């Protein structure tokens, strides 16, 4: 899958979870969504992008994606 598509998807998901007042809860919600809904290859690609550049990811996306490595 194109990285641009994954970035857009991640940022769209973060827009949804960003409505949470507690940003830790928002990051956990996004992380759980990524773990349940994204194929491992998609998760690996977005993690690699975060390490290479990551500039197009929202702050919440960066936080959730960085936690993917620990799972």
Give the strand tally.
Answer: 0
Terminal CA distance reads 21 Å
Measured on Cα atoms, how large is the radius of gyration? 11 Å
Q: Could you tell me the strand content as a percent range?
A: under 5%
Write a short abstract of this structure.
With 71 residues, the chain is an all-alpha fold.
Question: What does this molecule look like?
Answer:
Helices cover 75% and strands 0% of the residues. It is mainly alpha-helical and 71 residues long. The chain has one domain. Helix 2 packs across helix 4. It is globular. It starts with a helix and ends with a helix. The mean pLDDT is 97.
Provide the descriptors you would attach to this structure in a database record.
71 residues, mainly alpha, 0% strand
Topology record:
Blueprint: H1 3-17, H2 23-37, H3 40-52, H4 59-68
């Amino acid at each position: 899958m194109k990285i641009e598509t994954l970035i857009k998807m991640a940022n769209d998901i973060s827009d949804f979870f960003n409505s949470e007042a507690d940003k830790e809860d928002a990051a956990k919600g996004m992380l759980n969504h990524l773990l349940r809904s994204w194929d491992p290859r998609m998760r690996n690609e977005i993690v690699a992008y975060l390490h290479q550049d990551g500039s197009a990811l929202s702050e919440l996306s960066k936080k959730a994606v960085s936690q993917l490595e620990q799972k």
